[in-house]
Design brief:
alpha/beta; OB fold (Dihydrolipoamide Acetyltransferase, E2P); Rossmann fold; Ubiquitin-like (UB roll); 4 domains; 4-stranded antiparallel β-sheet; 13 helices; about 25% helix; globular; binds iron/sulfur cluster
């Protein structure tokens, strides 16, 4: 595979949560909170009422729009509150499962039946975008993709959830990959990861020697951020750069996250909806960094408690990695399906320099994996010049954060570009590829 253009080698900080490669099971917290707002700003309709009893896997909210996916309870207990924004469930500590979660008598035969099962299981892109997986699969079929890439790169510092998932569940990931390949009609599938995870590739190859899923290959890529971006992976596989307006799907390549492949395996082979995922709890302020099976809807506070709390007060708490994650101020916020990590960062990891004037050093240009000119985009946004921002292709920015990271003048380039992207949404010259989100990790 071809090496990615630009990018940067970042300090990895992964040792803390890798001190054990086990994924810890957690007992249910007393309260679990399920936000009802989804992609496309769809608000799910509750299917339960206050006072109802639910089981693990009970469908608790859905929407008639086929772009949506339903939401399932991650605990057994009583529905204690329903508002316009969320459903709150009080756990009963019994941890009883829906009887439908079991090995099905037979598997479907048609790709469209698999896609409907994946939708009904509530599966979204677990690589960070949260985009419904069934829509990506239907688009991949329409584009007649030839290659499926399963992304196990995890190039964000601190994040190890996919690393331990691959170590602990290689067979499930291989089988989930084969399902996705078969559903999309891809001729080949490649599970990729970075060179700091060579043991993962050895395990996958050993397991596949017995499984004999011959259309699945594995590949190692250099350790470099953002190695796992969809366009970078497609370019590495194809051996050519993608054109500016070309998405991975346009190039007939579908990129899915390893956690998504695992969830697809569970949905099809175990009839298990997506109600939990592996989350890395880490950062210098966490006493016992680790990876856990986090029930969707668990509050950040409860997850930190499972890691023995804080060594010192964090300066910033993030859902996701330090480059592309979201800073959260409310530790009552629950984990949703796309959250890969919960980080508590110390002051030394937070940029705090005073913003200065641009020196035209071009460092931001050198690192940009999308070959953009962040400095020009920043100036266009500051001047409110939407036409210029679009001319310089603001929507090709994947918000990887590298330009901000290297800027010696402490200019918050990525934040400015993010706000510019929002402002240019109403501009008449909006390119079509801006509406299909890319996998991030
Ligand atoms: S945030 Fe956007 S502009 Fe900045 S380096 Fe990443 S892709 Fe390029
Ligand atoms: S890195 Fe910062 S100072 Fe250098 S050109 Fe880019 S915006 Fe200007």
């Amino acid at each position: 595979m071809k090496k990615m253009k630009a990018g940067l080698v970042l300090p990895d900080h992964k040792y803390g949560s890798l001190s054990s490669t086990k994924i810890q099971n957690l007992s249910s917290p007393r309260f679990i909170k399920f936000p009802l707002r989804q992609h496309f700003d769809l608000v799910l309709n509750p299917l339960v009422q206050e006072g109802d009893f639910v089981l693990i896997g009970t469908k608790i909210a859905a929407h008639e729009d086929l772009n949506s996916v339903p939401l399932h309870s991650s605990t057994s207990g009583r529905v204690s509150k329903i508002t316009l924004d969320f459903i709150l469930i009080e756990a009963d500590e019994a941890d009883k499962f829906e009887p439908s979660i079991r090995i099905p008598a037979e598997l479907p035969t048609e790709p469209k039946q698999f896609i409907e099962l994946i939708r009904q299981a509530g599966i979204v892109d677990l690589g960070g975008s949260g985009f419904p997986t069934h829509l990506r699969l239907m688009e991949a079929q329409r584009k007649e993709i030839h290659t499926l890439i399963i992304n196990g790169c995890e190039s964000e510092p601190f994040l190890t959830s996919n690393h331990v998932l691959m170590l602990n569940h290689p067979v499930e990931i291989l089988k989930g990959t084969e399902l996705l390949r078969m559903i999309t009609g891809a001729e080949r599938a490649i599970i990729v990861t970075e060179r700091n995870k060579t043991e993962v590739i050895e395990i996958l190859n050993t397991k596949n020697y017995n499984l004999k899923l011959n259309a699945i290959e594995t590949a190692l890529l250099p350790v470099r951020f953002p190695q796992g971006s969809e366009r970078a992976l497609a370019a590495s596989t194809l051996g050519r750069e993608l054109k500016r307006s070309e998405t991975a799907l346009d190039a007939r390549v579908l990129v899915e996250d390893v956690a998504t492949a695992f969830a697809v395996y569970e949905a099809i082979y175990l009839n298990k909806p997506l109600y939990e995922r592996v989350v890395t709890i880490a950062g210098p302020c966490v006493i016992e960094p680790k990876n856990v099976w986090a029930r969707i809807g668990t509050r950040a506070n409860d997850l930190f408690r499972s890691a023995k709390g804080f060594l010192r007060e964090p300066s910033r708490v993030l859902f996701g990695g330090p480059m592309m994650g979201e800073a959260i101020s409310d530790l009552e916020r629950p984990v949703t399906k796309e959250v890969q990590a919960l980080l508590a960062l110390s002051p030394d990891l937070i940029p705090n320099g005073q913003e200065e004037a641009c020196t035209k050093c071009a460092k931001c240009v050198d690192v940009c994996p999308e070959s953009l000119i962040p400095e020009t985009l920043m100036k266009a946004v500051k001047k409110g010049n939407a036409a210029l921002a679009l001319e310089y292709d603001i929507n090709s920015c994947t918000e990887c954060g590298l330009c901000s990271y290297v800027c010696p003048s402490n200019i918050p380039l990525v934040q400015l570009i993010q706000s510019g992207k929002t402002k240019t949404k109403s501009h008449p010259f909006q390119p079509a590829y801006a509406v299909f989100p890319q996998s991030q990790s």
